[in-house]
Sequence to fold (943 residues):
Amino acid sequence: MAEGRIAGRRDTLRFRAVTTSSRLPRKALDRSLPVWVAAALVLLFLMALPLGWLVRVSVSQEGGGATLAHYRAVLADPALRRALGNTLVLAFWVGLASIAIGAPLAWLTARTDLPGKGLLRALVLASFVTPPFLGAFAWVMLAGPNAGLLNTLWRKSTGLDAPLVDIFTMSGLVFVVTLYTFPYVYIMLVNTLALIASDLEEAAAILGAGRLGVALTVTLPLVLPALVSGFILAVLQALALFGSPAILALPAGFHTITTQIWSFFHYPPKIEQAAAFSLPLLLATALLLLVQRRVLGRRGYAAVGGKGGQRRTIALGAWRWPALAAGLAVMACSIVLPYGILAKAALSRAWAQPLTWSNLTLANFTFTFVDYGATQAAIVNTLELGVATATVGAVLVALLAYVATRRLVVGHQAVAFLALAPIVIPGVVLAVALFIAYTRPPFVLYGTLAILFVAYLTKELPTGYAQSDATFRGIPAELEDAGRILGAGRLRILRDVTAPLARSGIIAAWCFIFIGVIRELSASIILFTPATRVMSVVIFDLKEEGQFGAIAVLGLTMLALTFATVALMQRVLGRDMLGARE
Amino acid sequence: MPGVTLKELSKRYGDVGAVQGLSLGVEPGELLALLGPSGCGKTTTLRLVAGFLTPEAGEIWVGERCLSSPAAVVPPERRRMAMIFQSYALWPHMTVAQNVAYGLRFKSGLARAGREARVREMLRVVQLAGYESRYPGELSGGQQQRVAVARALVVEPEILLLDEPLSNLDANLREEMRFEIRRLHEAFAITTLYVTHDQAEAMVISDRIAVLERGRVVQVGAADEIFLRPRTRFVAEFIGRTNVIEGVAESTDALARGGLRLRVAGGLSPGAPAVVSIRPHDIALAPAGASPAGPAPNALRGIVKRASFLGDSVDYQVAIAETDLVLRVVTAAGRRFAAGDAVALTIAPAACVTLGAEGPA
Fold:
């Protein structure tokens, strides 16, 4: 989710001339010093130290000195090469499939008279915030080759023995990952389409271009950057994902990079190889984000005159209902069927059996919340970490964004850059780096909630920062200047003007971070210890024990928490979190 | 009531010098307009005076106090100024009354009741009585403008700064508010700096106008002085329309350009290149062959290229015979010529104003 928000906002992140003191007098250096010391320390703990250790360990050899042996080892191993290949295949197809689903859906909901647009948009939002690993679990119950609900129904109705679908395959994995990744493409595109005034298209039409001609010569080039950018985001998402491959690829007998890195931590741990395998993933992510940035950076010509142009609705005619049916079919796969099977599993003794009176039970709830000790502790840990990370994070990003947008310190551009930098670190890689850095003196954090806190804070910093940056940009500096010239000092203005106007934006940042934390799996799975388990990790563990009822109950709890937070955020923002300006 | 003095003020943005050695004095109680095209440094100058920016060189004095120098800048909140912004900068989360009352919080010796009375009185002055509990978002542009004026005046500032305050209003309202601001200035007589790019606005509102070009003051004076005796080509062309003729000085009061010879007001140095400005309405038109009434040293012949009827006047473009000049001529609508008509032009030497070299005065 982080990446989606950031990308949507990336065009706003370029620095605009803010009118307040652009060049600072020498004295401002003293004033900015504490800010810099604090920011440097924070970033040292969050990024420099872990990544430094990651690189160092990847080239370390016993008895000292540097070596490339670990890189050679991981690249020479055919199993690891296969994992690499699998990841590329997965990422590429997820990217394409996300475009295939996200782009038409965006166009339909943004520009046509499709009925039920509000419903579709709400369902896309739901799929955006659904933890992908929950979707993967649900699809195991829906389309597992033996007991999967769809296959059982298929056998019953046809009498055939072979299953209809097998989710434990590469195509099954691509399918499930795409269901929760296409919203990235959708968001990029819907927000771009909302900015393209119909005049531009009509200007082409009046010059004699046909409907297809207009689409190909005007609309498509205008949305192409958003399309490419959405593709890259979807690819990045698939590259960094751990949960779905672990649930679907491992039983199918293949690895991806992330599951492979995770398995390096199994006994006997091969930390050096994990580090050596992590760095290429990190570099690939950084490179792709750079490309995406450049693609979007040229978007100036597509950021089309926001206000004047109206957007006229395109009539679909006879295609209205088939288009709606197609959209709903996608959303059924993404939301309705998975949520349904989770609810069924939560309420039944045996999830694969029909939902009859005798199969109906609340035992899963009592098991999860009362009998099974691990879940209660995990829920408490998750909430503690969620509240702590969101609170510290929201305050931190608010300060950083305020300092950067108001140009309060020398080198304020660097503040923004550093706050956004963690976006290039996939969760698993971050976890490997933190594991290495904080299992040794002087900072032994491994085994405490603190290491998870650091991981979550780092991971969510860019999301929160993008939100905060937009908030403070939305408050013109003139509003602060107007108070100062009337006699209020900077701190007084912060209290009387800036804080009240920024409040809802800061709450929204809090919500973004909180949602990100409670669903986090890929870093947690490497950093947890028995005393510091969180909900996502327990869900993952329960799979090993085959406790699908408890998985469903915990999963629904997580979804309930998520949607409550989403509702809170939409309330304070007064719009939905997909971010289109309506 | 102190005045404001700017001494050799400079401010750069990166490589661009927004303000370059600007000097200017505002008399106590005077309303002075800073007039210039966008990018001339007028808003930067205003923000320097307000204390939002620190100059790289130069000083700003208000009365006997030095408020800005490269070494020290008194922060905006301690300058006893008020400012009206282009965007009005009203706080959307405060009511009209709260917006207006805000500056009074920082004035000592005012009880709550006293503040409320001052706010009510000020809202009455700007004709917004009864709007106290509205929010800015519920007001029209003109009403928001009045709230901004009230908020600035209620604190009784020593200096009032206005940054293009009328540019967000529609044309009719803008004209009305010009007179309104002039009325308020006459009532309160606060020393005022008024930034605008609209010459008509500057002429209606201000006591004096300072014309800015590329970060420098090129001419300061009353509206008629600047219009009638522009010092440079830039000023002549920026304030109203004009014809600019370049040539060589034949004597102190004659300019030659090819076959054309013009008697001018004077002030030329013989042999040097010279430039004069002639306002379109200072040129008289008559049918070709008509004998000039009285002595007319500058009698030219030409052909009307284009005539535009503007209601109360006619705007001509006249190609001058035996030259490459096309002059703009505006006459009363009484006598009309059509395109292609041959005409005789007469220009009084006093109307040919000699322009100085480009650059600061």
About this structure: The longest helix of chain A spans residues 78-111. Confidence is low (pLDDT under 50) at residues 1-30, 300-308 of chain A. Chain A has two domains: 1-45+383-519+573-582, 68-310+320-349.
